[in-house]
Design goal:
By secondary structure, the chain is of the alpha+beta class. The chain contains 21 helices and eight strands.
C-alpha cells in the first residue's frame, strides 16, 4: 500500500514534467507579445487613445517624434551652431523625415531645438528603437521627445525581468531559510514557485492569443511578484500543517493527505477570493489596469495549483528527511517554547478590547491623513528613478524655453473637415501655431504647439479648450493629453472598480463564513489598512524617496491588491475562529486561540509577501516603486496591527454577534446527552 501511495507521488511529478514541456514553447513567447507603447497603457475610450490608433494607420504608420537639443551653459558658440547644423543635415540625408528640421534658438542663446519627425520606423517598436539609437549615434546633442522617451521606457521595462526575478528569488530564499531553519526544505517551495511562474507565463501568453488581453512590463512584473509571494504563503501554511501531521501520522503520504484536508479548503477559498478581486480590474477603462487583472489572477491561480499538487508530491517523495535537522518524528511532541509573541498580543487585546480597538482605529485614521500630502500627478519626465537621456533633454528644454511648449499636441480630424479644424486650432487660446501633417484613410493629422510648457496647468487648459472647440469626431492627443486622460480615467475607474471589489469580496466572505458581521468586519479592516498605507506613502514619497509625483493608478491598484490580499489572511484567521466556536469555545476565547495558533505561520506569510512587493521599491520605474511600497506597508500593517489587535479585539467585543445571522450567533448545537459541540469544519491552519 505504501509503495502504491509513493507511486502516486511520482505520478504527479511525471505529470508536471509533461505540463512544463507543453508550456515551454508558450512561456518563451510571452516577451514577444509584451507591449509598452502608450496605446497599451492608455484608457480604452479616451481621445489620446484614438489619436494613437489613428496615427498608426496613416501613411508610414505611427510617426516617431524626436527633439534634438544642443545646449551649452553660458551660450552656444558659432562652432556649436555649425556642428548642430551639420549633424541635422546628416540626419535628414540618412532618414526620410516629414519636414526639414529647423533650428529654434532659446532667448538666452544657450540652446538650440530641432524637431524631428519620421514615419520610417512605423509602428514597430524594434524599428523605432533602432531609429532612436541611430540618431543618438549621429548627433552630439541630447535626443528627447516622445519617441526617445518611449525607447528609454521600453529599455527600462525590458531590464526589469532579470533583476526583478533574481531579487525576488533571493529575498524569498533568505526568508525561507530563516523560517524553516533547514538547509534543504527552503529549496522545495522555491523551486515550485519558479515552476508556477513559468506556467503563469505560458497561460498568460495563451490568454493574449485567445482573448487579446494587454500584456505589459508592469503587469508581468506584478504577476511574478504575486506568484512568488502568494505561492510561498500557501507553501508556508501547507508545510506547517504537514509538519504537524507527521508527528501524529506514521506515513508521509497519509500526513500530507490530512494536511491537504485540513488547510486545503482555506487555501482554495483565499486564493479564489484574491483571483476574483483581481478580475474586477476587467471593469477598468485603463488598458494597463484592465490587462493587469487577468494577468494577476493567472499568477495567483498557477501558484495555487502548483502549491497544492507539485509541492505535496515533492514533499511526499522526499520524506521526513527534507526537514533535517529538525525532523518531525512520529509520536514526538513539538519542542516546548516560551509564550509566543502572538499569544502575548492576543492577551493584551483580550484584557482591554475596547481600548485596543479605539487606539488602533485612531492610529490608522491618523496615518490615513498622510494621503492628503501625496504629491501631484506624476509627469512623464519624473517616471524614472534614474535620468535617461530623453528625460534629461526634457528638463533642458523646460529650463531653456519656459515661455513656450516644446512637445507637440497631436490633433486628428476627418479629412473633409480638416481645414476648419486647422483654423479652429489656430484660433484657440494658448496655441502658438498649428500645421497640417499627414492624411490618409479619411483622417488628417494636425500638429499643434502650445504656448506653455508640457504638462503644466496652462497647457492642460489649452488641451481642454481644444477639445471643447473642435467638438465631437475630432480627437486631441499627444503625450500631455495622454497624461490628462490617464488621470481622468483613473478617477472614473476608482468609482466603478472599488465598489465592485468590495461587493465581490464581501459576497465571497458571506458565503465562506456564513455570516454578515464577520465579513463586514474583515472588509472594513482591509479598507482601513489601505487608507493608512496610502497615507504613509504620502508622508515619505517626496521627503524620503524624492518622488516628484504620484501615478494616477496608484490608488486603484493598491486598493485592489490590499483588499484582496488582506482578506486572504483574514480568511485563515476567521476560519480558525469558526472552528473553535463550533467546538464549543466562546467567541472571545476562540478569537484569542485562533490568533495564538495561526499567528506565527500567517505572520511568516505576511513577511514573505511584504518582502516580495518591497522588491518593486528598488525598480527604476516610479510607478512600480510606489505600488510596491504601499502594498508592502499595507501587508505589514494588516499582519501586525489590524489582524492581530483590531480584528481580535473587535471579535472579543462582539462575541457571538460576530457570526450573526448564522447559527453560530446562537451558540453551537449540542448533541443529546453530549457536552461537546457538533463536529468542526475540516479547516485548520
Amino acid at each position: 500500500m505504501e509503495g502504491r501511495k509513493r507511486f502516486v507521488g511520482w505520478g504527479v511529478l511525471a505529470l508536471w514534467v509533461i505540463v512544463i514541456a507543453l508550456a515551454a514553447p508558450f512561456a518563451g513567447k510571452l516577451g514577444e507579445v509584451q507591449r509598452d507603447r502608450a496605446v497599451d497603457y492608455l484608457p480604452g475610450s479616451a481621445d489620446s487613445t484614438q489619436v494613437a490608433r489613428i496615427t498608426e494607420q496613416l501613411p508610414g504608420g505611427d510617426s516617431t517624434d524626436l527633439v534634438l537639443v544642443y545646449h551649452r551653459e553660458g551660450g552656444l558658440t558659432a562652432a556649436d551652431r555649425a556642428t548642430a547644423a551639420r549633424e541635422v543635415e546628416r540626419v535628414a540625408a540618412e532618414h526620410p523625415l516629414g519636414s526639414t528640421p529647423r533650428a529654434v534658438p532659446s532667448e538666452d542663446g544657450s540652446t538650440l531645438l530641432y524637431a524631428v519627425s519620421s514615419t520610417e520606423p512605423g509602428s514597430d517598436e524594434k524599428a523605432r528603437d533602432a531609429f532612436v539609437h541611430d540618431i543618438r549615434e549621429t548627433v552630439s546633442g541630447e535626443v528627447g521627445g516622445p519617441g526617445a522617451l518611449a525607447t528609454d521606457a521600453g529599455e527600462v521595462y525590458d531590464s526589469l525581468d532579470g533583476p526583478l526575478l533574481y531579487t525576488t528569488v533571493a529575498v524569498v530564499a533568505i526568508l525561507l531559510i530563516v523560517i524553516y531553519r533547514s538547509p534543504f526544505l527552503w529549496l522545495v517551495p522555491l523551486v515550485v514557485a519558479g515552476v508556477a511562474d513559468f506556467l503563469s507565463m505560458a497561460v498568460t501568453y495563451a490568454l493574449h492569443q485567445g482573448f487579446d488581453i494587454s500584456v505589459s512590463g508592469q503587469s508581468t512584473g506584478v504577476m511574478t511578484i504575486l506568484v512568488f509571494g502568494a505561492g510561498t504563503d500557501y507553501a508556508l501554511l501547507l508545510v506547517s500543517r504537514y509538519r504537524e501531521e507527521l508527528r501524529r501520522v506514521p506515513r508521509p503520504y497519509d500526513a500530507m493527505a490530512a494536511a491537504l484536508r485540513g488547510c486545503g479548503p482555506a487555501v482554495l477559498a483565499s486564493s479564489g477570493t484574491v483571483a476574483l478581486g483581481m478580475l474586477c480590474l476587467l471593469a477598468a477603462d485603463m488598458n494597463s489596469s484592465r490587462g493587469m487583472g487577468p494577468t494577476a489572477a493567472v499568477g495567483v491561480l498557477c501558484a495555487l495549483v502548483a502549491m497544492t499538487t507539485l509541492l505535496p508530491a515533492l514533499l511526499v517523495v522526499l520524506g521526513r528527511r527534507v526537514f533535517w535537522p529538525l525532523i518531525p518524528a512520529y509520536g514526538s511532541e513539538p519542542k516546548a517554547t516560551r509564550r509566543s509573541l502572538f499569544a502575548a498580543m492576543g492577551s493584551s487585546a483580550g484584557r482591554r478590547p475596547l481600548a485596543v480597538l479605539l487606539a488602533g482605529a485612531a492610529a490608522l485614521a491618523a496615518l490615513a491623513l498622510g494621503a492628503l500630502n501625496l504629491p501631484g500627478a506624476l509627469k512623464q519626465e519624473d517616471s524614472f528613478s534614474s535620468t535617461p537621456e530623453a528625460v534629461a533633454a526634457m528638463k533642458t528644454l523646460a529650463a531653456a524655453y519656459p515661455e513656450t511648449g516644446t512637445q507637440p499636441i497631436t490633433v486628428v480630424a476627418p479629412t473633409a473637415g480638416s481645414a476648419g479644424a486647422l483654423e479652429t486650432a489656430r484660433a484657440t487660446e494658448g496655441v502658438v501655431k498649428a500645421e497640417r501633417g499627414r492624411s490618409g484613410d479619411g483622417w488628417t493629422e494636425i500638429s499643434v504647439v502650445a504656448a506653455h510648457p508640457p504638462q503644466s496647468a496652462a497647457e492642460t487648459a489649452t488641451i481642454k479648450e481644444l477639445r471643447s472647440a473642435l467638438g465631437e469626431g475630432v480627437y486631441v492627443g499627444g503625450p500631455s493629453a495622454e497624461q490628462l486622460d490617464m488621470a481622468d480615467t483613473s478617477a472614473r475607474d476608482r468609482d466603478i472598480v472599488v465598489p465592485l471589489v468590495l461587493v465581490v469580496v464581501t459576497i465571497v466572505l458571506i458565503v465562506l463564513l456564513r455570516s454578515l458581521v464577520a465579513p463586514l468586519l474583515l472588509v472594513a479592516a482591509v479598507v482601513a489598512v489601505w487608507g493608512a498605507a496610502l497615507g504613509i506613502g504620502g508622508l515619505v514619497f517626496e521627503s524620503l524617496f524624492g518622488f516628484e509625483g504620484t501615478d494616477p493608478g496608484l490608488g486603484l491598484l493598491s486598493f485592489v491588491f490590499l483588499v484582496a490580499l488582506g482578506v486572504d489572511y483574514g480568511i485563515f484567521l476567521m476560519h480558525r475562529m469558526r472552528e473553535e466556536c463550533l467546538n464549543g469555545t466562546e467567541p472571545g476565547a476562540a478569537a484569542l486561540t485562533a490568533l495564538r495558533t495561526t499567528g506565527g505561520v500567517i505572520a511568516s506569510a505576511g513577511l514573505v509577501l511584504a518582502a516580495t512587493f518591497a522588491v518593486l521599491v528598488n525598480m527604476p520605474m516610479v510607478q512600480l516603486a510606489e505600488l510596491g511600497f504601499v502594498i508592502a506597508v499595507g501587508v505589514l500593517l494588516d499582519t501586525f496591527l489590524v489582524r492581530t489587535y483590531l480584528v481580535t479585539s473587535a471579535s472579543v467585543l462582539l462575541g457571538r454577534k460576530v457570526w450573526w445571522p448564522g447559527p453560530l450567533a446562537k451558540g453551537p448545537k449540542q448533541q443529546p446527552g453530549s457536552e461537546s459541540a457538533t463536529e468542526p469544519v475540516p479547516v485548520r491552519v
